[in-house]
Specification:
The protein has 368 residues and is of the alpha/beta class. The protein contains twelve helices and 13 strands. It has a 13-stranded mixed β-sheet with strand order 1-13-12-11-2-3-4-5-6-7-10-9-8. 45% of the residues are buried. The structure holds S-adenosylmethionine and iron/sulfur cluster (2 copies). One iron/sulfur cluster (SF4) binds at residues 291-293, 296, 310-312, 345-348.
Length: 368
């Protein structure tokens, strides 16, 4: 496979500011609305910026090499700090938390964090929807412990079934069979409706779309196809490399006929399709060709505690600074409320030649 030259990234992880803390913050109401009337509904938490894969669309080797300076241990949010921030978000009405990274299963003792978060309930007294996205490489070993710790759902990223294509895409020669074993182990541990995410890059793995559909049809797992996005500044993204979701659906439909089905909830990012023969469903996430900024209700917390209100934001807001500076929960809640209420992001809707030059944070740092 030939890879296009990548662009070196500017170091802007530290492009951050201490958030404004209102002098007399109001108590959380359980519902926060941004300047475009979008509620705050879910939080992604990156637990590490490290990964054992080097997917070219995310952490190309040319940038993330042995000289790359990953965050030191002291910079990482500790589990009790993550729990405290999540609790404040819960008081503002979030219902869902996704743990991600980097590769989240590389974070030591992750089960202990899961145990803490699994006990939380939403403002409506429902259990917090706690889930995790992983590359699956360590899942065979860890699925049972994750489940026992209280994790309810899991998403596994898998870009190809063909071993050569998969090894080339993860760029560390990791075999596909180990990830497939990990998915089986997760099912045995009791995870239901496992989501399998495939990023489609034109000319790289588009010929894997139908084999992937064939493999996961009827398995009870939900395969979802993601358009290759221009996140970060290192993956050499070009619009020509994006395979539009409508082409993915057409390719599958020509072999296994599909029909659209309704979203399960407002703001769902994946458009859902079901196999006419009853063998389950697929999803497509069209971040590039059909942006869903108008419904985007997601905040992201980086490994070192910066809050980002958009995947494409150039700067984060230093919640860790507030936390370690002695802020009270009320002050933290006030700062988060102010940030969300001022939020105006809609990068994918305005993506253009002007936005291409922007300094953007890397996916592996902010969490996908
Ligand atoms: N390492 C874990 C994994 O791969 O599942 C979690 C972190 S990864 C950044 C989260 C998700 O982001 C993965 O499903 C990955 O395929 C996706 N991703 C990364 N870079 C992407 C890009 N440029 N476009 C679309 N999806 C991307
Ligand atoms: Fe690692 Fe996930 Fe990024 Fe691939 S997509 S390099 S597995 S963080
Ligand atoms: Fe949300 Fe930003 Fe993505 Fe739009 S571009 S959907 S606002 S994260």
């Amino acid at each position: 496979m030939t890879e296009r030259a990548t662009i070196p990234i500017a170091e802007h992880r530290y492009n951050t500011a201490l958030p404004y803390v209102p002098e007399s913050p109001q108590a959380p109401t359980g519902r926060l609305i941004d300047s475009r009337s979008r509620p705050l509904h879910d939080l992604r938490v990156s637990v590490t910026d490290r990964c054992n894969f080097r997917c070219s669309y995310c952490m190309p080797k040319s940038v993330f090499d042995r000289d790359y300076a990953f965050l030191p241990q002291s910079s990482l949010l500790r589990f009790e700090e993550i729990e405290r921030i999540v609790k404040v978000f819960v008081s503002h009405g979030i219902e869902k938390v996704r743990l991600t990274g980097g590769e989240p299963l590389l974070r030591k003792d992750l089960e202990k964090l899961i145990e803490r978060l699994a006990t939380l309930t939403t403002v409506n007294a429902k259990p917090l929807d706690l889930t995790l996205t992983t590359n699956g490489s360590l899942l065979s070993r860890k699925a049972r412990a994750l489940r026992d710790a209280g994790l309810q759902r899991i998403t596994v990223s898998l870009d190809a079934l063909d071993d050569d294509v998969f090894r080339a895409m993860n760029d560390v020669d990791f075999p596909v069979s180990d990830v497939l074993d990990g998915i089986d182990a997760a099912a045995r541990a009791g995870f239901r409706s496992i989501k399998v995410n495939m990023v489609v890059k034109r000319g790289v793995n588009e010929h894997q779309i139908v084999p992937m559909a064939r493999h996961f049809r009827g398995s009870g797992h939900v395969l979802r196809f993601i358009e290759f996005m221009d996140v970060g500044a290192s993956n050499g993204w070009r619009l020509d490399d994006v395979m539009p979701s409508r082409d993915v659906v057409a390719a599958i439909h020509s072999v296994f006929p599909l029909e659209p089905i309704a979203a399960q909830y407002g703001g769902e990012v994946a458009a859902r399709w079901r196999y006419l023969d009853g063998c389950g469903e697929i999803g497509v996430i069209s971040s590039v060709t059909e942006p869903f900024c108008a419904d985007c209700s997601r905040a992201r917390l980086s490994t070192e505690g910066r809050l980002y209100t958009c995947l494409f934001a150039a700067a984060g807001h230093d919640l860790r600074g507030l936390l370690r500076g002695g802020a009270s929960d009320a002050q933290l809640a006030g700062a988060i409320a102010h940030l969300w209420q001022s939020r105006d992001d809609r990068y994918s809707e305005i993506r253009s030649s002007q936005t291409q030059g922007l300094r953007k944070i890397e996916m592996s740092y902010i969490g996908g």
